[in-house]
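ok so I'm stuck.
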Amino acid sequence: MGNSALLVMDVQRDVVEIADGGSGYLRRVRSAIDGARAAGLPVIYVVIGFRPGRPDVSPHHKVLSAAVRDGLFTEGDPGTAIHPDVAPQDGDVVITKRRASAFSGSDLDLVLRVRGIDHLVLAGIATSGVVLYTLCQANDLDFGLTVLADACLDTDPEVHRTLTDRLFPRWADVLTVEDWRTALTPN
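replied:
not stuck anymore, here's the structure
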């Protein structure tokens, strides 16, 4: 798996409230985080956030314009914080992005390159948003990739299944959190 890092993306209070209907999602993400820590892998959190007044959101961007109209994702607002059930520990890096991909409008690539990370393990909300966009860009940047299917979540379960069953396997290893944790454990 190369020099790997776990990316926990957009698991923010407001996003979890919108997307998770009590599926046990946070428990699975917590298990992935615990597995990464036990294996000595860095856990890097990625959040979406916009400046107050939203000077970084174009009215031409349908999805982001709708989100900011609904009052979502202003930096410093409690709903924009990482969900406390999966909160970072001291020493974890938190990246703020300005668009769907974890790389867009952020210094993620710099943080990864400085640490010599060449393999990314992806978890996050939404499968059709941050996970898809980050996977595409990371693939183009020649990172090795693993997607933790059950540590990704989408408001549309069919879209989630289509992406994790049919599209993502073209570019990444797609595993459950349990199977990934088992692969991390030396025999």
